[in-house]
Amino acid sequence: MSAALGAGFRERIAADLPVQAIAFELGGETHACDVLLVEEVVTGRRIHPLPDMPPRLLGVVRLRGELIPVIDVAPLLSLALDRGRLSTILVLEADERRVGVAADYVRDVVTFPPGVLRPAPGSDAYVAAVAHMDGTLYTLVDLAEILREQTTLSPREPT
Questions:
Q1: pTM for the model
Q2: Could you give the 3-state DSSP secondary structure of residue 137?
Q3: What is the Cα–Cα distance from 147 to 65, expressed in whole angstroms?
Q4: What b/e string do you get for 39-55 counting C-beta neighbours within 10 Å, with b at 16 or more?
Q5: Could you tell me the domains of the chain?
């Protein structure tokens, strides 16, 4: 594997390499995340809420005998998850444990060719780039960064 291919999501974007991403809807907007980060996409599973957990933790989902915590990243992007539908869950590995990220639904796997990705406007720590392709505006989200900062599942939010 080449060094550029093994590099992180932001590094591959900065190197202007083709980037494969999973496109998903969240809060009425189209987002995409690094395809290498996602282990699987789960649909139609009930998320079981847990008592006394921070609002970002929606609950857990049972997947092949394993309980996987599911977090809501929409508020971090100033969005809201569509609670009127069953969530789609992107299952990722973070710090040697599996974590689910709720999305409204997954669209497709998209390949962004060189030259399509643009730097994110502003200084959002979680948005790696934006792209306009085939009539759709994509916001590329750095889920690895979100999980590094947000997977401490303490019962109380900081005040």
A1: 0.84
A2: strand
A3: 23
A4: eebbeebebeeeeebee
A5: 3-150 (2.40.50.180)
